[in-house]
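Archive maintenance. Older records in this collection stored only the sequence; we are now back-filling the structure field for every entry so that each record is complete. The fields below show one back-filled record exactly as it appears after the update. Entries are processed alphabetically, and ATP-binding cassette domain-containing protein is next in the queue.

ARCHIVE ENTRY
Title: ATP-binding cassette domain-containing protein
Organism field: Paenibacillus foliorum
Length field: 584
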Amino acid sequence: MKAQRLLKDYMKSHWLMYISAISFMAVANIIQSYYPRVLGNFTDHLQATGITQAIIKDYSLILLAIGLGYGILFGVGQYMVMRLGRRFEFHTRKRLFNHFTTLSESYYSKNGVGRLLSFVMNDVTAVREAMSMGLNQTVNSIILLISVIMMMVISAIPIYLIAVCVLPLLIIPFAVIYFGPSIRKRSTKVQESLAKMTESAEEQFGGVRVTKKFAVEPIMRGRFGKTVDQILENQLRLVRITSIFQALLPFLGALSLIISIVYGGYLTIHNVITLGNFVSLTLYLRMMVNPLQQIGNVINAMQRARASLDRLNNLLSVQPDIVESPTAKPLDLQSADIHMKGLTFAYPNSTQDALQNINLTIQHGKTLGIIGKTGSGKTTLVKLLLRIYDPPKGTLRIGGEDIHDATLESLRNQIAYVPQDGFLFSTTIRDNIAFFKRDSSLNSVELAAKQSQIYDNILEFPDQFETKLGERGFTLSGGQRQRSSLARGFIKNAPILIMDDSVSAVDAVTETKIIENLRLSRKNKTTIIIAHRISAIKHADIIVVLDEGKIVQQGTHQQLLAEDGIYASLYAIQEEGTRYAEGQ
Ligand SMILES: Nc1ncnc2c1ncn2[C@@H]1O[C@H](COP(=O)(O)OP(=O)(O)OP(=O)(O)O)[C@@H](O)[C@H]1O
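Back-filled structure field:
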């Protein structure tokens, strides 16, 4: 697994912006650290000469200059940091999405949509917040602390007094080392439980229609409630530890201030230091409390963000299962035969073979029908053809070439796959049909719609081919959805068309018309039809019957009827059903 360095890479490519932002904020803080010194001098002046108009004017102008200088420079620096944070968020989300598009189906079957959404939403935001706030406050606090210490050292305040007063503050680094790892561990738990909640919400929303029909809302609420409870529990554990940590810092700051008042006051009474020095010292120490508290906040936020950053880096390091060989060539499938020889396949993480010793030849231009019980391996067979999963080397050849030697693009571009439950996007029906090539002419979209027998329905939709589907759009029936997705397969006019149970939701008359259109439009092109109904495949040049991953029968409709096997008994049952229905 190649380690990813999301944040480091980003910082490397934006270093100039970082340096500029840091410089602006650094100068702003150096200017601000003059503030106690000016007030100290003011006090000494007051003591020496009493209050005069000139003193008031001079010091107000100096303070105004400090205020303006700090405000402008700090504002610009802060803007740059925030901008960097937002750009990081944008860049990371794009990078994640690009990465998602490279991952294989097996990754998606292991990770729910909600979990993936959580990476894009929660984790990226956690890192961005820590980045903007972290950089901002770290620079502010560190520069301010250094400037304050420098100003104290070059002032007339004795070093031993400074050392004693600053002593409690030295405990802070130890507190950080002690609390840091626990904060990070608890933050990882919070992020994980957020991911679980998003996953659960996605599942519950997706299944809301089923839930409603079965009136099982309490179960739904219970399931979601559990994930929310888990977040609360994990967040409270995190809050407990961060609160202790954050309370400790101001306490140490206050302690140092008390020491300065007691010890500094004593030295002032005995004239070891001036009243102005005493005022400056307390102001300096007061000025150190905020940056110290900010450092605590930043460390907490950084620890939380580290947990998210680790999750993101791990995700970006996931390699797709299906990788193209460096020597892969684009294949031309126009006149390619398909050969399967001794093909045995088991899904990753499964001990059972989904396909066993498949030997099959599909000559180009022919129609293959595949039938078999549910779970017999029909879909698996065509997934291997699309290389959604990898068949063992040497077991599947297309046009004489091993499938592993073909580029994925050439393979998938020349095969049209129509699944049983084709997904339709929230766009117009026209765009859904022309999904493969958005600029297809309306004529070709209409032709595909006619071939898949959805044309007449579309004419009745409110905006016909421009009718918007999906969320806040028009809802199609199951059969209409299936035929729209079939039109998507027709319009591609690919050398190989695979219909995976794609006419299961249409009535017998429509099915016959679709099959007839298929035969007309796909002369000399390879077509693979998976079906449960014999009526959908009986015209095929060759039919295979799959049972528990094995080909148990192979031949034409007539040949298989003549055999004493699954096909003939299936035919008898389905015929009986048809006769019964017709007799009703
Ligand atoms: N992603 C997967 N991971 C593990 N096992 C799987 C996966 N997909 C399918 N299977 C298993 O492989 C076997 C064959 O499944 P396949 O989907 O090919 O059957 P099918 O004949 O198409 O079924 P149906 O007619 O119900 O669509 C089944 O036992 C199924 O549980």
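Update note: The radius of gyration is 36 Å. The chain has three domains: 6-196+232-317, 331-414+495-584, 421-493.
Entry marked complete.
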